[in-house]
Design a protein that fits this description.
It is built from 13 helices and 16 strands. With 457 residues, it is of the alpha+beta class. Helices cover 31% and strands 24% of the residues.
């Protein structure tokens, strides 16, 4: 089994005999030898391979060892005289696995715009930036599982195909095998599932089922929104992390959200220092300071009513109006986090009229026990609430929001049989990675973005 380049760079010793397999980033031919930088995706920095002319002369495929080619190198690690590496590989054997035509290979050694890279989504993971993004994304996912597993949460797999609209916004993709080209009304009773079905917008409702049996659970999977938005912050397919806790109120929910984010940011800082330094240098000079703040500084807290008062007194001419009863826009959220609090802030107790039916109605009858975690430079990163555990109140809320109670019979049953206070939140995984890396466009923090008019591969 070949060694990963990351392990060789960090643990390799002079005199070790190793074999590496990867893709050529650059090739430079001199009189005495040929220098090749090879990378296998395990690290930002590639391994410099030195090919003596005697070895090159005995290797006919050396001419095809161009940028993008896949190759295998075996030899001995030696101390490097160069400034950017401590060791290098002196190759004694070379095998070319697959060449790359230098006339047509689009990733030659130069800077490419992210817009261009999106047009070659099958090759862009080989670039430094996308490679760093995917390693940070992997570290975030690892940290998420570690956080919940260490705290006794059960990871549950909620369905991708669902019959209910969790958010009540109607932004759902229909799943059907029916022929929609025929005229007339569609009879979904004749469809594959015998009823109308959708791609899920959230696993929360099903997570509540599992929380009533296992107390603390979490989901981590894909969700879908048919929102015709082509902004740098929206995707049609994205991943969500949604913990759900029985015997928990809004205060416990806020405490978990804060601890959770601090854990994930600390994990990435500890495990991806090279990649984070890259983002600091090339993408956003404040990435490290922002991550350190998220990992170590306590979050501020404001009620929605207090937040509105702060915005009204700010003297700012916001693009969107500020008034009690209106939802906070991104510009309002960023002002609260970046300028007023100058740190992450949790806003809680929102007006009932602008929140989902499942959020617990407060005693004032006007607000619900909802909370959003707002972060500098991005705004909302987590949204959550204490769920409505009272049967009669929940039923009334469903009707008030204009929803048909029939599909929610099972959700109401949870309030009939052993109901308990419970709470949870949702984290958009790509928003987290975007915030962590400082990347401008959310399309560049997911391997295969799905957006209006775009579904490659």
């Amino acid at each position: 089994m070949q060694q990963r380049i990351k392990d060789i760079l960090h643990q390799g010793q002079v005199g070790d005999r190793v074999t590496v397999k990867g893709w050529v980033r650059t090739k430079r031919e001199l009189k005495e030898c040929t220098f090749v930088n090879v990378n296998d995706g395990s690290t930002l920095a590639g391994l410099q391979v030195v090919i003596p002319n005697t070895v090159a002369a005995a290797t006919p495929a050396i001419k095809d060892l161009t940028t993008g080619a896949a190759a295998e190198f075996s030899g001995e690690l030696v101390r490097s005289p160069g400034k950017n590496q401590t060791i290098e590989l002196h190759a004694q054997q070379i095998h070319l696995w697959g060449g790359a035509d230098p006339e047509t290979y689009p990733l030659q050694k130069k800077r490419h715009s992210f817009e261009f890279l999106r047009t070659i989504g099958h090759l862009r993971p080989r670039t430094n930036t996308l490679g760093a993004v995917m390693r940070v994304r992997n570290a975030c996912a690892t940290a998420i599982h570690q956080f919940f597993q260490e705290r006794g949460f059960l990871w549950v797999h909620t369905p991708i195909i669902t019959a209910s609209d969790c958010e009540g916004a109607g932004e759902l993709f229909t799943v059907t095998t029916l022929d929609f080209t025929s005229e007339g009304n569609i009879d979904f009773s004749q469809d594959f599932f015998g009823r109308r079905a959708y791609l899920t917008v959230s696993g929360q409702l099903e997570a509540e089922i599992m929380a009533t049996a296992f107390t603390n659970v979490y989901t981590f999977g894909p969700t879908f929104r048919a929102e015709n938005s082509n902004t740098s912050r929206h995707l049609a397919e994205f991943w969500m992390v949604e913990p759900e806790m029985a015997f928990c109120d809004l205060m416990g929910d806020m405490e978990l959200a804060e601890t959770f984010l601090q854990f994930v940011f600390r994990y990435v800082l500890d495990h991806c220092p090279e990649d984070m330094a890259f983002f600091q240098e090339r993408i956003d000079h404040s990435v490290m300071a922002t991550a350190e703040q998220m990992a170590s500084q306590p979050f501020a807290r404001l009620s929605y009513t207090e937040a509105i008062q702060v915005l009204e007194k700010s003297g700012r001419a916001f693009e969107f109006p500020v008034a009690w009863g209106l939802d906070l826009q991104s510009e309002h959220e960023r002002y609260l986090a970046e300028e007023y609090c100058q740190r992450p802030v949790i806003v809680y107790d929102y007006p009932a009229a602008i929140k989902a039916f499942y959020m617990r109605l407060n005693e004032d009858g006007k607000t619900v026990a909802a909370m959003d975690v707002l972060a500098p430079k991005i705004g909302e990163i987590i949204g959550g609430s204490q769920r409505e555990e009272r049967f009669d109140v929940l039923q009334e809320r469903i009707l008030t929001q204009g929803l048909d109670p029939a599909p929610y019979w099972w959700y109401l049953d949870l309030r009939r049989y052993g109901s308990v206070p419970h709470a949870g939140f949702g984290l958009g995984f790509e928003r987290l990675v975007q915030f962590m890396t400082g990347m401008d466009n959310i399309r560049d923090v997911i391997p295969f973005p799905r957006t209006p008019g775009n579904a490659e591969f």
